[in-house]
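dumping this here so i dont lose it
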């Protein structure tokens, strides 16, 4: 087994930003372990797909075990899996709350803990958490308290982990997107969503993959929350 080439794990990898990240890392000649609940097998021998719910620790354990068994190492983890439910605060159900915490928080916790344990052995690695600008900059008319609760927690965890593991060779950063043009957003909503950004357009998937790859190559950057939001975080 040739274990000299770098390996990235990407969650939420079946469509949208996650699928874009798989392609972006493969274009850099990384081998990739891709997970989502609905992911299909890949014809690319350097892409290992593992279906399953990332909030289940057994799935996270399987991802890390298969990554090391097939590719011999783990260099990067991109915590891209997440769900967003826009409702007035008093309209959220207990099921909404449980589902968002399960994916956005539990899913982060299990896979990140296991991946960092492997990275510590090689004294190198990189975690990137995909969060949201809304966690820090709420917008009137975009109810997002559960996204802010969970993704804001990941922003805080990013900084905490970055400091905890800095001397052990593991960097931890986050990318905080604005609204990105993905299948999540129906075309008829694009104009209204674009108006949330000072630049007047939706973000493209490539805007996020470029940001993740920048952080991947920026060896002196850790604990950074990189806003990729068309100026949304700068003000309106």
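and the seq i came up w/
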């Amino acid at each position: 087994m040739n274990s000299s080439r770098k390996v990235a794990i990407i969650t939420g990898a079946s469509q949208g930003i996650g699928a874009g990240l798989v392609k972006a890392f493969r274009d850099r000649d990384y081998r990739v372990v891709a997970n989502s609940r609905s992911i299909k097998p890949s014809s690319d021998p350097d892409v290992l797909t593992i279906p399953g719910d990332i909030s289940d620790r057994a799935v996270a354990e399987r991802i890390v075990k298969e990554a090391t068994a097939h590719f011999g190492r783990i260099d990067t983890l991109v915590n891209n899996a997440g769900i967003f439910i826009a409702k007035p605060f008093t309209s959220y159900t207990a099921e909404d709350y449980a589902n968002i915490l399960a994916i956005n928080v539990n899913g982060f916790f299990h896979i990140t803990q296991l991946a960092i344990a492997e990275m510590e052995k090689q004294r190198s690695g990189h975690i990137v958490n995909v969060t949201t600008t809304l966690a820090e900059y709420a917008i009137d008319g975009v109810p997002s308290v559960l996204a802010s609760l969970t993704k804001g927690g990941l922003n805080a965890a990013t900084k905490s982990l970055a400091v905890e593991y800095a001397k052990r060779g593991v960097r931890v950063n986050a990318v905080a997107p604005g609204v990105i043009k993905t299948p999540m957003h129906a075309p008829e909503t694009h104009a209204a969503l674009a108006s949330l950004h000072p630049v007047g357009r939706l973000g493209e998937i490539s805007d996020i993959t470029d940001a993740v790859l920048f952080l991947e190559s920026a060896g002196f950057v850790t604990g950074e929350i990189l806003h990729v939001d068309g100026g949304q975080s700068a003000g309106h």
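Strands lie at 7-11, 31-36, 47-51, 76-79, 125-130, 170-177, 225-228.
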